[in-house]
Design a protein that fits this description.
Layout (H helix, E strand, L loop, with lengths): L10 H8 L19 H5 L2 H4 L11 H34 L3 H21 L7 H11 L3 H7 L3 H17 L4 E2 H15 L6 H13 L3 E3 L9 E4 L3 H7 L4
Antiparallel strand pairs: 1-3, 2-3
Helix pairs in contact: 4-5, 5-6, 7-11, 8-9
Length: 238
């Protein structure tokens, strides 16, 4: 799980991938991550340059699914096309390779259900599109899109703080500093601390956030109650 080795200076990753490049080295490093574009997302150039094939990913689970549903002969033809099609879509929308598996499975289920009503057919782009619409149209995503401007900025500030700290939990005060920085970049007036606490409370009431129940005020800890990719997808056009 390569993403779990991430540190701010990325020394661990660099040393890990630098070992195989040493003279007379017989070491081969195979790294696994759920994020399809991990090198582009979090790796410094000095680390990414050590990777031999950073853009390739291979899913045994998906290929096994094709073997069961279509047989080995069709697998050879369909697997490459599906990886290219769905992989590119998921990379643009999310980045999590597990979403690629979910979309492929759901598209196949939609196709099979439609085939029960009429003549059998193969999985088509329409089935993939329907599966994607189902996955990225959850009530949580709609709630984010309908949130106020500062509520959306607060969610962006949480993501920024998570990336900065390398952990998926932060205090309201840490998020507030990121929120102020984002407002400054956008040329907007920053909210007061009382307004930030109200924003945090509303997002918690919507179950978009998990907020620590205490009287610590700015030192309360918050976590996202949904996947980070969903938040980024919902805010992509904002």
């Amino acid at each position: 799980q390569l993403d779990l080795l991430w540190t701010r200076k990325q020394n661990v990753m660099y040393n890990l991938f630098d070992w195989p490049t040493q003279k007379h080295s017989k070491l081969i490093i195979l790294a696994i991550a759920n994020t399809m574009d991990l090198p582009e997302r979090i790796m410094m150039n000095r680390v990414a340059s050590r990777l031999v094939c950073p853009s390739n990913f291979f899913s045994v689970a998906l290929l096994s699914s094709f073997v069961v549903r279509f047989g080995v002969f069709c697998l050879l033809i369909l697997a490459k096309l599906w990886f290219q099609l769905v992989g590119n879509i998921v990379a643009a929308l999310s980045g999590d390779a597990r979403r690629c598996l979910d979309i492929c499975r759901r598209a196949t289920e939609i196709c099979e259900f439609a085939s029960q009503k009429r003549t059998p057919e193969i999985v088509r782009m329409a089935h993939v599109t329907e599966a994607i619409d189902e996955m990225f149209s959850s009530p949580y995503i709609n709630a984010i899109r309908n949130a106020s401007l500062h509520e959306q900025i607060f969610l962006k500030a949480i993501l920024a703080e998570f990336r900065r700290a390398g952990v998926e939990e932060a205090t309201v005060q840490q998020v507030y500093h990121q929120h102020v920085a984002l407002c400054r970049i956008e040329g907007m007036q920053s909210p007061t601390i009382s307004e930030i606490m109200a924003i945090c409370s509303r997002l918690g009431a919507c179950r978009l956030l998990l907020v620590e129940s205490s009287n610590k005020y700015l030192h309360m800890r918050v976590r996202l109650n949904i996947n980070q990719d969903d938040v980024m997808y919902a805010l992509k056009d904002e």
